[in-house]
Amino acid sequence: MSGRYLTLSLLLVFIIMLLFLKNYEIWTYPLEGTSEKETMKKLEKRPESPPMMAGQRNPTSIQSYISISEKNIFSPERKEFPIFGADSTKPMVRPQVVLYGVTIAGDYKAASIVNPGRPVTKGERELMTVKIGDSVGEYKLTKILSDRIRLEAAGDTFEVLLYDPKALKRRMGVKTENRPATVTSTQPASAPSAVGALPHTPPAGGPVLASPPTSVVAPRPIAPRGPVVTPPPPATATPTFPTPDVRRGRRPVYTPSPSTPTQGMEEY
Predict the structure, then answer these.
(1) Which label site among 83, 93, 135, 170 has the fewest CB atoms less than 10 Å from its CB?
(2) How many domains does the chain have?
């Protein structure tokens, strides 16, 4: 038994010595510089970019993916991508101006234009008159000639022709009052049919021919030459009887009225 323990202990000592020597060599062994051939081999072994597929149109996107994958995203020297601010200036939009006419009288110059993009309020006409210096949208009118006008803005200038075949001009509507139409007939009213007259019946077995219309001129009324005086109706006289005043004898005596004469009257 003692011999077996001795051999095991010697074996363990040998293994410990061997591990100690290997550890010592690793810590004390000098580092050797890598040769240029080895670096070239490493560069040659780098993965190449995959070939572009037939359906792919933009090869730059693949190259950007490859360049991103080659970089170390955990590098302490990594920087954020710069964010470029959007351009706040809007592009200039030319108004669709249509030139309808130009007025030039000495120093007075004006132009009649229509701007379809301009909002029109209620009761306002679409056709507007502008002079030199007036603004049309973001542009300003700077020149008026006999056949064109010029509009200018910051960094842009264009002209509008009077006889431009590309600009379609429509006729401006004029509002008129709609009055109901009155029909005056010159034909007299149809005379009433005689009593007992039978209506005319067309003959059977053939087409009915419509008689042509006959124009009948109604006689014009003749105005009286002088004023017409209508005499008043005669007044109807009502008989008036005198009241009996004195009775003498058998026959009554009436007091005469002032309108009746008293001559020839006798008393009984």
Answers:
(1) 83
(2) 1
